[in-house]
Each structure stands twice: as structure tokens, then as C-alpha cells.
Amino acid sequence: MGQLQVEVEAADVGLAPERLQRIEHHLAKYVTAGKLPGWLVLIARGGKIAHLRTHGARNVEEGLPVETDTIFRIYSMTKPITSVAAMMLHERGLLQLTDPVSDYVPEFADARVYVGGPAAAPQTRPAVEPIRIWHLLTHTAGLTYGFHRVHPVDQLYREHGFEAGYPEDADLARACSEWAELPLLFDPGTRWNYSVATDVLGRVIEVVSGRNLDEFLREHIFDPLDMRDTGFCVPESELDRLAALYSADRQGLAVRNTRLDRVGTRPPQVLSGGGGLVSSARDYHRFTQMLLGEGELEGTRLLGSRTVRYMTRNHLPGGADLTELATGTFSEVTNAGKGFGLGFSVVERPEAGKVLSSAGLYAWGGMASTVFWVDPAEELTVLFLTQLMPSTTHPIRTELQPLVYQALVD
């Protein structure tokens, strides 16, 4: 696979061309209204790209268009990649899902759970269960993000410098050490809270493998899959391809984010397995095709087929869905009928969510409004890339899904 391009006629794989036009027509309105700078949509079926469109600008101020080779900050779409890396170690017998995280990051040995009080004087008790590897993969560890702003522990994260980034003098090891000193929101394995858990998982990968996270991902995922544009920063020679970053103002209009725009332009001090990667549509498409191929792409196998199937089942305790276990954190999409696997959300009951879908669809998105999903039942993968923060600004993800499924007519 070389230059990104359409590989098959849409009609030949059950996608109606006239119905696909509805996607571009709808999403173009966001750009015309100034609500998005620009975007890219890629739809593949049966492993072949059937629909590829770009619209708007990767840099509004300089008048540079979104192109098929534009590089984007994928933020939390980093998490599935880190989860695959962890499961590669699991397959080699180097890491068990039930291992206590403290076996690899000893600071987590004495975890305590918040039970009351303000951030200035939190009341805690010892956790009844150690944080285990599977808790990190499923966001049931009791960790959090400072930007949630719904819990006193979120405030503690912010006070320690963990909001939309990291303290200037921190590296991944130190960040994990500081998180370990802060209270958990709940006993591990009892609730779901979107968190820095995948960053901690990245540190576990480093300890187990003896390699820095960027080196491990490069050697074991990016190079084998020929993901040329994916990493923790864009090479200086390719910076013109990096899309500018925007945030929504109070009217929902896209405004250049000059504070975070440098993210991805230089090597970070913290190698964030939870949100640190940049990538291109070509590269992430190759990653989704590996997943659709149950661990294999073009003769290169990263994971066994049973491992991918296992990762994309619901691993929440008791088979619960996210509406039952999730704490009061944000979500851009409905969680009804949706569980969580080892690195992905997983649709179990499409009818519960009231959005066109398939049972078994697994997905995730990023803070700058990016999203992908893989639907094994339809042999379908979808990728949407843009650069607008936060991802809760517009209901693009909820709107995109029925726009794609209405185009399936076979």
C-alpha cells in the first residue's frame, strides 16, 4: 500500500455512491459555518478503501488544505495502539492480565481510595484490591484525568500539574510515581472512569520490555505495519504536513489554539501511551486493517486472531455496560448498550444506543474530535480526522455513524 487512494468502486462493495455524498454534504456544513477547520473521512470495506474525502483547511490562517497525507494529533486514539503493544507482551508470556501493576511500578503498592472531604484534605482508606493490568486496559483502575473537573481527585491531579498535559520537568516514570501517590476514585474493578490508565500501561510496557515506549512501538508496531508517519512528534522535514490545532469558542467556532499547537512538533518529555501520538490517515488505516484482519496485515501478524477477538469483547465486571459503571465524566456518544474491552469501547446491543450500528463494533476517539471504528460483521472500518478541541463540542461522531450505515445497501 503506497499513496492513500480509493482502491475499489463503492458500489462493488455494497456502498451506494449517491448515499455516500450525504456524508460530505453534511460535514461540509461544519466547515462553512466555521465550526471545523477541515476534515478527512475514510471508509473501507473488505480491506479496500471505498470512500476517501477531504474538506477544508489543515491550517486556516495560511490557507493550507487538508490533504490525504496530512498529519494529525490523534490524542486518545493512541490508546488502542498502546493496548495492542501490551497484549503483544501478554502473548509472549511476559505480562499477565491479572498481574498487580505494582509488580512493575512499585509506587502503586499502597494505593488508597478517596472516601470524602475536599481536595485540600481528602479522606482515604486502603484499596481492597490492587490495580491489575486488566484494570488499566479497561479504565477500571480508579485513576482519573485532571480535565474532568467533576471530583475532588480531579482537582488534585490539576494541582500536581496534570490537566491537559504534564509538569514541565516530568517524564513518564515520574508521572506514574505522582499518580500513585494520589487517591483512587474507587476500588479497582468496581467502576469505570476514563483516565491516565493507558499512560501507566505505557510505563509497564517500558519496564517489561526494557525499551522506551517510543522505541517499543516503533520496533514492534509502526515499522512492521509500515506506519511511516506515526510517532510522538513530527520530523522537522514534515512539519508542513501537520494540521494546526483549534479549540471551540463559546459559540462553537474554531479558533486557533496557540497554547497547545506546539504539541507534536518536538519530542515530548512524557511518552504518553494514552494520548501522545501523531499519525496520518494512511497509517491509522493500516492499523485498523490489522485489527479487522484479526492481528494480521499483508502477511505481517502482530497478534493472534483469538487475542484480537478477546480484546474486543466486553470486559466490564458482570458484563455491565458503561451506563451502569461509568462515573460522571464526559462522553460524546451514547453509552447505552456499550461495554469496554481491552483498549476499545464495544457495542453489544445496538438497539439500546439508538444509533445505527452493529453488535461487535469496536471504536475509540481522540480529544481533537478524531474517531475510528471497526465493524467485523460488516467488514467495515471508518476513520474521521480533524483538529478541534474538545471532542464534545459538536455531535459529529453520533451523526457520522448513521451517515455511514445508511450508505450500506447490499
Automatic annotation (TrEMBL):
<dbReference type="InterPro" id="IPR001466">
    <property type="entry name" value="Beta-lactam-related"/>
</dbReference>
<dbReference type="Pfam" id="PF00144">
    <property type="entry name" value="Beta-lactamase"/>
</dbReference>
<feature type="domain" description="Beta-lactamase-related">
    <location>
        <begin position="25"/>
        <end position="398"/>
    </location>
</feature>
<protein>
    <submittedName>
        <fullName>Serine hydrolase</fullName>
    </submittedName>
</protein>
<dbReference type="InterPro" id="IPR050789">
    <property type="entry name" value="Diverse_Enzym_Activities"/>
</dbReference>
<keyword id="KW-0378">Hydrolase</keyword>
<dbReference type="GO" id="GO:0016787">
    <property type="term" value="F:hydrolase activity"/>
</dbReference>
<dbReference type="InterPro" id="IPR012338">
    <property type="entry name" value="Beta-lactam/transpept-like"/>
</dbReference>
